[in-house]
Amino acid sequence: MGTTEKQNEVYLEPEYAADLASIRKARKRIETFIDTTPVLKSSFIDELSGRKLFFKAENFQKGGAFKIRGACNAVFSLPDEVAKRGILTHSSGNHAAAVALAAKLRDIPAHIVIPKNAPQCKIDNVNQYGGRIVWADSSIESREAIAAKVQEETGAVMIHPFNDGNVISGQGTIALEFLEQVPELEAIVVPISGGGLISGIALGAKGIKPTIKIFGAEPYGASDAAQSKATNTIVRNVSPRTLADGLRAQLGDLTWPVIRDLVDDIIVVNDKDIVKGMKMLYESLKIVVEPSGAIGLAAVLSKQSASHPDVAECRSIGIVLSGGNVDLDPLWDYMNCACQT
Amino acid sequence: MGTTEKQNEVYLEPEYAADLASIRKARKRIETFIDTTPVLKSSFIDELSGRKLFFKAENFQKGGAFKIRGACNAVFSLPDEVAKRGILTHSSGNHAAAVALAAKLRDIPAHIVIPKNAPQCKIDNVNQYGGRIVWADSSIESREAIAAKVQEETGAVMIHPFNDGNVISGQGTIALEFLEQVPELEAIVVPISGGGLISGIALGAKGIKPTIKIFGAEPYGASDAAQSKATNTIVRNVSPRTLADGLRAQLGDLTWPVIRDLVDDIIVVNDKDIVKGMKMLYESLKIVVEPSGAIGLAAVLSKQSASHPDVAECRSIGIVLSGGNVDLDPLWDYMNCACQT
What we know:
The structure is a homodimer.
Chain A lengths: L2 H6 L11 H11 L8 E2 L2 H7 L2 E6 L9 H11 L2 H4 L3 E4 L3 H13 L3 E6 L4 H9 L3 E5 L3 H15 L2 E2 L6 H17 L5 E5 L4 H13 L4 E7 L4 H8 L24 H7 L2 E5 L1 H15 L5 H10 L2 H4 L2 H4 L3 E6 L7 H10 L3
Helix pairs in contact in A: 2-4, 2-9, 4-6, 4-9, 6-7, 9-10, 10-12, 13-14
């Protein structure tokens, strides 16, 4: 980055769990462990949307999702004597595999509490990285109780999936890469679940380029962040109902203030539009993205965006494809039936 | 490339329809119209296969397949007064879209004879590039008769999908890129149908690096190339039976001599193994590849390769992922049923 950009940087007051400085530190800490993911383009989708869209392909990230950024930053921030006791998390998704992989990279044990209904591909990923799986029921109470028990027994350090300053800083490294790759970005659209990803990106991107807009993309059946913005207080996410298994969490007390203050708006889309977005990414970009990862494109192509003054005026929009871990078994079943030899 | 490499180049006698010089000319002719596709790696698949595999991602090529290389080279080789009459092909697959796109790039008409049973995604691609579709029955006789009629009416030039020196030279440009990207390659595995792709790659790669091995990958239900090699004469491909819709053609008189002389061996795999290869590419590399495009990985992971002395000794193998145009409707049907909003 040039001097001019540096002069324009805004060092936000440290009122949040992370800031541009902590995100820059995170980047140095994790850079040897993660990949700088490519930015993809599709002239077909550009024509369709009437603007330039830039896709940050975190589905190509190690472990198949952005989560390794935050997990690595948290794990490598621990002092040796603490780290050696191991780490612990409870997650049904990409964070579980990321914690297992980060522990493997630091050569310490990882205990992963997983609900029995987690998608098989995400369980496979934890196994692949050598994490120790501890089973729980699907309720958050069961997961928390079992995690507490494991923590008591092992002394392992809990790595929260999003409500953690180091995790938020790690996810924010996406903003630094993305703005270096595409300085012209006027907005970034980010999937929103617990809010770790969008908090990190908002703090990083607005720290470097205060004029940039940050929009959340959230499924209709788990739209607690949109409701929280509308009512200016954290709304509980009771019985989330969405195909996007990665977007069912609810905001934490560390992510909410960032979303309240720095996220310009949240675009809510239904599951059918998420599937349409996935189809377009598979067909035009030839990439595999999970439902949660495709929601950003669905949001940009939605009616809500078309009539949204702030979104409509942006000519260059970045979209974070957050992950690519999805069970495609129905496709393989079909293909296997179509085999002729 | 350095001087040493140039000194080691073998300029093959011009006994074939293409050679290293024609491939180099093709590269200059088409370079502004095509993409240099990336080479992808997977540490997971490397561990599984016990060697280093390099995937040349032609599924990311313009039009979703390598075919635009040969089509562009053929179309831009035509003198202006010939080109303006338009071009013509009959194809159920990626070549059809490639010819339509190449014609669009040169701003001339394209007539595409397509059998009624062609995959929808491939028909959509022809439409997307503005090609004029002329319907035929699925038999090769019907396609040829209708193509002859269109040619008589329009004076358009036929661009054969593979039995054409310019097309072979265009496909051969993959070898030049691939060996620049990964000079250490000891072998390249290439899907084989009519033989245009593997002929071009064999001529290009062995022209630059005579020690490199070239292996074909062919489906069990359309293994005419393997049978031709075994009997040393072109074997007809009667009633091909394979899921890999791009691999049902039979060798031509221009591709056969190259395959006979320069392809080291052909590995035959069944459709179920092709699906396993696809699954691995989708899950590990997060990319969309069609069945014909995944056969190279299936071949490398096959039992035949494990016991094949020439394949087994190669530590660095290049695999050409030829295309990514595949109807995924069964997946979208399933996903739409799983939608909750």
